[in-house]
């Protein structure tokens, strides 16, 4: 009997391959339709920025590091203090999911090397100029991995709803700030979510 994790791994690989092929294998003349869609969304977001919204988006964008580390660390400390083995195991599951998805994201970035939106199209003006390549979004990858793993560990609406809202907000902030395309963010969300599902056996 096949392990259910194999199904998630297969779906994850296929999804990432489809994104890469769609983005870089469908050009005939000029830009692909996906690239045109990406550019249009980025230009619309840049045109609608306000100082207040930008401050919020910068805060959300920066929050991912603290949440990605804070959630498993908090569970580990709580599990040690309360002698709760399940909580400690869930901490390992969430931390492993986030770390592995982040490593896979770095590998894909190195292979694909997609330019940042503001490097590809000078009309797209970012709030700040991020380094490294664009595909997939690291923020979307790790935030959705953390959110999905936490939701799997504690499948209650009051955990799932804020977790997914946070991950979605972080991902949206990357587009708003002009440093990632919608397809970068979508691929990162798929990668992070898929990794959390693949590693479910670590959850107790």
UniProtKB/TrEMBL annotation:
Membrane listed as a keyword: yes
Topology within the bilayer: Multi-pass membrane protein
Entry-linked InterPro entries: PAP2/HPO, PAP2/HPO_sf
Entry coiled-coil feature ranges: none
Transmembrane segments: 9-30, 92-112
Pfam families per the UniProt record, alphabetical: PAP2
Localization per Swiss-Prot or TrEMBL: Cell membrane
Keywords on record: Cell membrane, Hydrolase, Membrane, Transmembrane, Transmembrane helix
Phosphatidic acid phosphatase type 2/haloperoxidase domain span: 91-200
Record's protein name: Phosphatase PAP2 family protein
Annotated source species: Mucilaginibacter litoreus
Taxonomic lineage from the root: Bacteria, Pseudomonadati, Bacteroidota, Sphingobacteriia, Sphingobacteriales
């Amino acid at each position: 009997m096949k392990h259910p994790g194999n199904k998630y791994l297969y779906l994850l690989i296929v999804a990432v391959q489809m994104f890469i092929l769609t983005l870089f294998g469908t050009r005939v003349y000029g830009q692909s339709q996906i690239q045109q869609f990406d550019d249009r969304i980025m230009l619309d977001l840049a045109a609608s920025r306000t100082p207040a919204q930008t401050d919020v988006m910068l805060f959300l964008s920066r929050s991912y590091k603290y949440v990605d580390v804070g959630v498993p660390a908090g569970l580990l400390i709580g599990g040690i203090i309360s002698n709760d083995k399940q909580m400690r195991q869930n901490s390992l599951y969430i931390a492993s999911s986030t770390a592995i998805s982040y490593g896979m994201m770095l590998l894909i970035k190195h292979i694909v090397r997609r330019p940042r939106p503001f490097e590809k199209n000078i009309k797209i003006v970012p709030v700040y100029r991020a380094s490294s390549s664009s595909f997939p979004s690291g923020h979307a990858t790790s935030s959705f991995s953390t959110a999905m793993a936490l939701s799997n560990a504690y499948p209650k609406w009051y955990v799932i709803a804020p977790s997914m809202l946070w991950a979605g907000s972080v991902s949206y902030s990357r587009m708003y700030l002009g440093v990632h395309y919608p397809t970068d963010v979508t691929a990162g969300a798929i990668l992070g979510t898929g990794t959390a599902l693949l590693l479910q056996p670590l959850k107790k």
